[in-house]
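agent> Task received from the user: take the single chain below, predict its 3D structure, and emit structure tokens. No templates, no multimer pairing.
agent> Plan: (1) validate residues, (2) run structure prediction, (3) serialize to tokens, (4) report one or two observations.
agent> Step 1 OK, no nonstandard residues flagged.
tool_call: predict_structure(input=
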Amino acid sequence: MAKLTFYGATEGVTGSAYLLETRDARVLLECGLVQGGRKEEEANKEPFPFAIDGLDAVVLSHAHLDHSGRLPKLVADGYGGPIYMTDPTGDLLEIMLKDAAFLAMRDAEWENRRSRRGGKHEIEPLYDLDDVVAALALCEGQPYGQRVEVAAGVEVCYRDAGHILGSSIVEVFVHEGGKEKKLVFSGDLGNSFAALLKDPEVVLDADVLLLESTYGDRNHRPMEETLEEFEEIIDQASASGGNILIPSFAVGRTQEVIYRLGELYQKGKLGNQAVYLDSPMAIATTEVYHRYQDVFNREDRAKLRRSSSGSLHTFLPILHYSRTTEESMEINRIDSGAIIIAGSGMCNGGRIRHHLKHNLWKRNAHVVIVGFQAIGTPGRALVDGAKYFRMAGEEIAVNATIHTLGGFSAHASQAQLLDWVSHFNNPRPRLFLVHGEATAKDVLKRKLIEAGWSAEIAGNAETISF
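)
tool_result: status=success, residues=466
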């Protein structure tokens, strides 16, 4: 029988990693970073809890770092086999991993400066650009809907998950003893009300199902209400003369926000504002999105193509790209009328922190949270009502108004998760919940049991057979 061991995303929403072992093959599904506070992220430096030698393939659901971010470390530690993903995921992965390496090298250098002054041992970054280049050389892009053999007796087929560009539901077919068994990993399922991308594809059958549960305990606000509130925030900022800061994930969320701002602009609602995309990674990602418009949903693709060149930039002509540090610093001299989109999405790094430093203490400023904030992150602290924001040893008073627009989430809500699994035929697959905080998984498990499922919560290092 095939075996599956859960090595990540069992006690939170990050660090995805699952090892599939058959009589003839060993395949790693996902290789994600653990994200959160400093303590949580120390886990990334630990040796992998499985033997890399003899690993035949790696399969990714999408490019987000909590699913892919330890790939360069895996390669640096000795892996040299193929890494499978969709074609758009490959393009995004290059952007994300190079950025992650740059940040890891920068952080290590900062830490080592202190260590040298204190006579302490220096540290190595988790990985460097050479490791990223080596990992990218192993990547093999695949189209949606086509079965491909990734190892002896193991085939994979990608289905559109509608989460970010290139994201996929992964169907894994295992052939042993003349029989075929099917494992389905939901990846991160998209919010069906989000812009640009298609709804998650329906899957009808499986023997084992791994289901994400990020929003397993709640439903998103209706998109109509979210967009109305977004428009109200812009009106408030315009009336009070304040800036709007949007901490946003460079891949997916940023493009959603730009599209929604473009809709407001097309309706004549952004006459006094200028929008700044202050993230080289988000700018590069937006350009990748433009190249893959064929995977957008029909309605939004048509809207974009009615603009002069069909791009997000022309859909929102007041959008300014800030590629350099100097251009970013110029934004901080703007006292009003700026809508600043910058990473990171959970406020634990990136240029958004400097904009928060310059704006959080102002009572006429607004911070719009548009994505999930993991426990232990600065973004979560803002959502939970923190009175001060700590940055580089300085405490900054939080006087700005903090808004949470859950409707912008790129993740499926509880109702959407339940609807997606409802399409599976009987007999229903054995279902394991992953990628969720404890409360989210507990609530979703109860809902699934009420719906007639036999749902289980995956445990760390737990092994199942099928």
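agent> Step 4: summary for the user.
The chain has two domains: 3-218+410-465, 223-408.
agent> Done.
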